[in-house]
Structure formats: C-alpha cells, structure tokens
Design goal:
Elements: E1 10-12, E2 19-21, E3 25-26, H1 42-55, E4 59-61, H2 71-79, E5 87-92, E6 94-96, E7 102-104, H3 108-122, E8 127-133, H4 146-149, H5 151-157, E9 161-167, H6 171-178, E10 183-189, H7 198-207, E11 210-214, H8 226-235, H9 239-250, H10 263-271, H11 279-286
Parallel strand pairs: 3-4, 4-5, 5-8, 8-9, 9-10, 10-11
Antiparallel strand pairs: 1-2, 6-7
Helix pairs in contact: 1-2, 1-10, 8-9
Length: about 290
C-alpha cells in the first residue's frame, strides 16, 4: 500500500462538500501520442492511476475527447468502483476529428451526447464536476458563452451533473457564466512562464473559486528556463518539481493536475508538494513570467 502523502494542503470547492488535496492528476497523457488512441503501455497507465489514488490524489481531471474515449475507459478499468472522496472532473465542448484535430462541439445535442459518453465510459450515474470548454486551443476567445452554457444547468437539474465549471474563459465570460449557474472552478492555461491570468487568479481566490491551470508544466512545449534550471539545481529537484511547487505557492485556490503516463514521473510530481523554495528564489522564478506574482 502506498503511503498517503502531503499533497500541498486542501481546498474545498465552493458550495460543495468536495475537499480536495491540491495536487491532483490530469489524465490526458494516458492516451497515445497526440492524445490519440490507446497508450503504449496500458498496464503502466493503470498502475499510475492506482498509485496516484493510494498516495492521496482526490481529483482526477479527464475528458471523453482524450483518445477519444480512451482515458475514461482506462480510469474505469483502474479504479471502478471508485473510492469515497475521489472527485472526477471532466470536460465537454470539444471533439476530435478523424485527422486528430481539436474541434468545437458546443451545440445542445453535442453537449448532451458528450455528457452521456462520459457517464458511460466512466461507469457513473452522475458526474462530480463538468467543465464547459470554450475558446481556442490554448486560450480563450472573446464573445458570449451563454448559448452552450445554458444547456448544462438543465442536465444538472436532471441529476446527471453535480457541479459546473468553465475552461478557457476570460474574466468577463466568468461573470456571464455566474449569472446563469454557480461555477466552482475555472480551468485555464497558466504556468510559470505563461502568466496572463495573474489578476484573474487573485479575483477567483477572493470569491473562493478554484483555479486549475492546464499545462502547468508547459504542455506541448515543456518549460525551459535558465532560471528554472538554476533553481532546480540548487534545490536538488527537477525543473518540473520546482514549477509545480511555485504554482502551489502562487495562490491557495490553485489546484494542480499534472499528468504523466509514468509511475516514476508521478512520484516526482507528487513530491513537489514537499519542496521549500526560499523567498529570494521565488522572486527570481516570478521574473520568468515577466513580473512578480502578487
């Protein structure tokens, strides 16, 4: 049995009884290359999920368009029936083309179908949290999200969704969303080098809303910085551990979902919560993103 770890403290999603350890797990890398098809080693993928949960991970981020239909089936195979306290967060609003492209799927029927795909492939009667994903591939687009978002509260009223979040949104779109339904989390692109949401995070923390950075380690372009390398050398840690530890220090409402298909890398990611970064080093790391975090 893997020992339960300190995973950066806890955060309770607003208006819920869901208290999560602040380091979770992102399932995207459980699919094959380009997030397409099955992984090279299904047994390793299953081992990663089981060790993550045994170590104390209570938050798994996934979507049925990973694969597509791959990661949810692996999660079900590895963990179903799910342990008490495990929160599975999924996304709707996109689909994969036959050419592996990422396309919007925001019509009422597409959203309803996506919801039922997630339910079926995860083996659930209701989804803990569903994020509506809008915007572009790497960031939000301006404009109203009222049309697609109004579909989801009806599914919530039917008992198929417990709580709602949004992904790839601007602060203005969040304001619009909150007029339609309660939002418990925002999932946007953010990391040590990509800091467009600095002020947004502060505002969300004041509201008690979770901020979940996707691509916390850079995503398709891994983080690279001489400052990060120097910090990791000084701390005798990996650059990725330092980047995750910095995020935990950034704001108490940040929940991390680093992904990996390797048990070794999973252990490294989880151990980031134990890393102590001196204040002068934090200032140096802040400069990577073009300014100090507040």
């Amino acid at each position: 049995m893997t020992k339960q770890m300190n995973l950066g403290g806890t955060f309770t999603l607003p208006g819920t009884s869901m208290t999560l350890n602040r380091i979770g797990y992102g399932a995207m890398q459980l699919a094959g290359p380009q997030v397409w098809g099955p992984p090279r080693d299904v047994d390793e993928a299953i081992a990663v999920l089981r060790e993550a949960v045994e170590a104390g991970v209570k938050h798994i981020d996934t979507s049925d368009f990973y694969g597509p239909h791959v990661t949810n089936r692996i999660i079900k195979r590895a963990l179903h029936p799910y342990p008490d306290g495990l929160v599975i967060v999924t996304k709707v609003g996109a689909r994969r083309g036959d050419d592996k492209s990422w396309n919007h799927a925001l019509s009422q029927q597409e959203l309803v179908d996506a919801l039922h795909d997630n339910l079926r492939n995860l083996g659930l009667d209701a989804l803990d949290v569903v994020n509506l994903r809008v915007g572009g591939v790497m960031g939000p687009s301006e404009g109203s999200i009222e049309g697609p978002l109004t579909v989801l509260p009806e599914l919530k009223r039917q008992g198929l969704i417990r709580h709602l979040g949004v992904s790839n949104v601007t602060p203005e779109q969040l304001v619009e969303a909150e007029k339609i339904t309660e939002i418990v989390c925002v999932q946007n692109f953010y990391n040590l080098a990509h800091r467009n949401d600095d002020e947004f995070i502060i505002d969300l923390a004041a509201q008690g809303i979770a901020y979940v950075p996707f691509f916390p380690l850079g995503g398709f372009s891994p983080l690279q910085s001489s400052v990060l390398d120097a910090a990791s050398s000084s701390l005798r840690a990996t650059p990725m551990q330092v980047a995750l530890a910095w995020l935990l220090l950034r704001s108490p409402n940040i929940l991390l979902i680093p992904g990996t298909s390797s048990v070794k890398h999973l252990r490294e990611n989880l151990n980031a919560a134990t890393l102590h970064i001196p204040s002068e080093m934090i200032a140096d790391l802040d400069s990577i993103g073009g300014g100090a975090a507040q």
